[in-house]
Amino acid sequence: MHKVWRSVCYRWIMRSKHAISLLSYPKINLALDILGRDESGYHIVQTVMHEVRGGLYDEVQIETRDDEKILLRCDNSEVPVGSESVMMRAVRYMQQLARREDAAAQIRGATIFLKKRIPIAAGLGGGSSNIAAILKGLAQLWGVEDCVFDFAREFGCDVPFFLFGGTALGEHYGEKITTLPPLPSSKGGALQFEIIDTGMQVKSEDAYARLDLKKCGSNTAMTEKMIAGLKSDDLRAVFENLHNDFEMALPGEIYGSQNPAEKILLAGSGGSKVRIRYL
Question: Looking at the 3D structure of the chain, how many domains does it have?
Answer without folding.
Answer: 2
